[in-house]
Amino acid sequence: MLCFTAAENAGRTPKILITARSLDDPSVLLEVIDNGPGIVGDDSIFDAFVTTKNKGMGIGLAVSRSIIEAHEGRLTAVNNERHGATFSVVLPISPDQISGHDACPE
Question: Structural domain tally of the chain?
């Protein structure tokens, strides 16, 4: 649901790109890139009860960051050059997850 929030009021056809790739350390990087209005303000968007919606509770990003950090990951957000923002999630991969385990068991 957070993905759709980003692009819903930008005056453009909403577009969201989700990418995933492995990093060298070993971890995985997930990015959600949208063409919405971008982020207004600073890192406070991750604080509890911060919202830009009339009926929003402002807990979605705070809870998301807490869950990700509980798994030794990090969640960040930056504005894109033209439109929108990119939210990045980096999560560590344990050695047993990359040595011989099938990611898609039958």
Answer: 2
